[in-house]
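can u do me a favor
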């Protein structure tokens, strides 16, 4: 494919959803699709002329650039492509595009050479799936957030906002194509904003927490205390993932070191006061300590 040539991205017409909107938005960040025309139809004869097809057609075939997930036999998850992941939710068209093109998409947005295997892109690839893409996958496939009855519903999610951008039932003269592209701009902006947030804010904090965990024995011989350098570093956004990957799931770490569970964190606040904080039981429970 020639960069910036007028290629065609095919997707379905009618009511649009966040998954195909996001799939199209992500593809437009690739040089080969940056100037592509988005064709919205369910006509197979027209879809067959497209260079890539998402969320329609009833076929998943990456070799032929066909990325639908609606067929009964389709049950692929992020974990199928990345076995070390915990995410086993069925992929939508957004997830399919992400697992096949995500690293290149992130590299293009951040201006990083995709062939360098930059550690920033590696870290962001998993983070963007777990914090953004998986939500789109789950909602589009009807996967609930919890098994037990929910005490309240969320109506401000990206998927909800995209749904409300469809033409209203009583506004028959509304241009569906304009609504689609308005939704694409919304989704694309949120995707880009989050990529830059994780690259500029989240990732630097991760490196600080990673070094703190690695150097914990220099703080105290027990290895149960970590010291976070700098002020205001959001350590809890990274600690549990780092502990899991660096210590608990690392075959090169002996059992004694695994049993020396980290219990306390010391850090300086922005007002120059110091805090000693007990580590919570897990990342989802900040009110109970180890």
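np, heres the sequence
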């Amino acid at each position: 494919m020639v960069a910036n040539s007028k290629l065609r991205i095919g997707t379905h017409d009618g009511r649009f959803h966040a998954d195909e909107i996001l799939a199209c938005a992500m593809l437009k960040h690739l040089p080969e699709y940056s100037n592509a025309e988005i064709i919205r139809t369910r006509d197979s004869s027209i879809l067959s002329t497209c260079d890539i097809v998402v969320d329609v057609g009833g076929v998943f075939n990456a070799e032929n650039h066909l990325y639908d997930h609606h067929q009964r036999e389709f049950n692929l998850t992020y974990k199928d492509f990345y076995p070390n992941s915990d995410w086993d939710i069925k992929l939508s068209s957004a997830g399919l595009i992400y697992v096949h093109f995500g690293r290149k998409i992130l590299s293009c947005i951040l201006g990083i050479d995709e062939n360098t295997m930059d550690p920033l892109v590696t870290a962001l690839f998993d983070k963007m799936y777990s914090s953004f893409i998986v939500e789109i996958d789950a909602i589009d496939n009807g996967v609930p957030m919890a098994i037990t009855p929910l005490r309240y519903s969320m109506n401000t999610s990206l998927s909800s906002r995209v749904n409300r951008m469809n033409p209203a039932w009583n506004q028959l003269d509304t241009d569906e194509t304009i609504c689609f592209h308005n939704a694409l701009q919304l989704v694309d902006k949120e995707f880009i904003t989050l990529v830059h947030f994780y690259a500029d804010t989240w990732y630097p904090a991760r490196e600080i927490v990673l070094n703190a965990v690695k150097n914990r024995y220099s703080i105290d011989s027990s290895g149960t205390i970590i010291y976070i350098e700098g002020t205001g570093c959001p350590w809890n956004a990274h600690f549990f993932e780092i502990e899991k990957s660096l210590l608990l799931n690392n075959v090169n770490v002996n059992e004694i070191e695994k049993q020396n569970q980290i219990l306390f964190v010391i850090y300086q606040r922005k007002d120059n006061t110091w805090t000693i904080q007990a580590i919570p039981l897990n990342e989802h429970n900040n009110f109970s300590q180890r």
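The first helix runs from residue 18 to 27. hope that helps!!
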